[in-house]
Amino acid sequence: MSSALTRDALEAFWMPFTANRQFKNQPRLLARAEGMHYWTPDGRKVLDGCAGLWCVNAGHGRKEITAAVAEQMATLDYAPAFQMGHPVGFELANRLVKLMPGDLDHVFFTNSGSESVDTALKIAVGYHRLTGNASRQRLIGREKGYHGVGFGGISVGGLAGNRKYFDSMLLNTDHLRHTLDLEHNAFTRGLPEWGAHLADDLERLVTLHDASTIAAVIVEPMAGSAGVILPPKGYLQKLRAICDKYGILLIFDEVITGFGRLGTPFGAQYFDVMPDIITTAKGLTNGAIPMGAVFVRKQLYDAFMQGPDGIEFFHGYTYSAHPAACAAGLATQEIYEREGLLTRGAELSKAFEDAVHSLRSAPNVIDVRNLGLVAGIELQSRPGAPIGARGYEALVKCFEKGILIRTTGDTIALSPPLIISTAQIDELVTRLGEVLKTIA
Ligand code: PLP
Predict the structure, then answer these.
(1) Which residues pair with 39 in a beta bridge?
(2) What digits encode the pLDDT tens for the residues 258-274?
(3) DSSP letter at 165?
(4) Separation of 386 CA from ligand 1 center, angstroms?
């Protein structure tokens, strides 16, 4: 075993979204990290091709974040956020809303992307109830969407594996079709030309259910977890227009696209489409401390601030605006601003695009797609083997070869820290290409 831990020592931890038995027989451990790299317990260096899990946007081991968290913990380790407050929570809220487009000027703090999604869905339904539209309770998601693992998130999510055990317990939802279509769009650089009409699915669902039953539509502006699925040109604009036509709220789940991944602070700015709610997490604190945040437009916040004085929204978490997370968030935003990281993806995206498209000729590659500092490399599933067999082999071999990638089924996702150099982009893609040549 390539680690300091015995087989027995690995047993108690039921690992999330992991093939536990496979992993525990052949563990892949990461023990230390700095900059663009991880190190294994036995000292092997691994280039981080996916920013941890799409979250370490400023690279690893940022001393400013460590120092800010340590100082905060020594000053105020915890304070309740229910009917009490602490200065750093307000400071972070004020700083974050300045990054937001339009009047997305209020923020609700959570601890994860899943909590952000469930919070956003509750805000959307609550908003309609408060504004005289109590029948608007249906939530529309999209096939292949990933919105975390809460009951709200799996209900609007579109991945069968996440939903199948809970079928009768899911919320009142329906789903748009996804926008992945290799027949029309394989090997597109950037946004596909074909497919804006898929947004018309929302018209179909309005016809089926009636607009008076629909509270909100939630989509990832660019879907990450299902294997990097891009919106066709004009698709999100069309979705916005149909939402406006029928009084439906539009939620962008920016847990991945938030904080610079596409070369703008948020996907809403990249696509120039204004949603009513944005959910975030991950890059908010550079992955260093768990934290999520939900941004809402002024009219939504205002709708809750009516009626007699009292608690306006019966919702929140013990650790909403945890002081350590807020300190990590502030230090992270400081780094992003000082180093221009929220827009650095735009400078690197062409070099990244050229590099990843060089994999087009590698064995079994049936699509390469990219946007900002994200790429999806889809492999043909191995005939007669379970879906994901080739992807898993790629993951294991890449780790052995010193690069960390992410796979969903047979699609490889790359989303490196935004500090990556062009030489490191070449190194990442060259090594991945070498691995692909060894996979039958
Ligand atoms: N929403 C999106 C778009 C995500 O990509 C993720 C995680 O990858 C989540 C929600 C869930 O976030 P978390 O794992 O922090 O609950």
Answers:
(1) 32, 45
(2) 999 999 999 999 999 99
(3) G
(4) 25
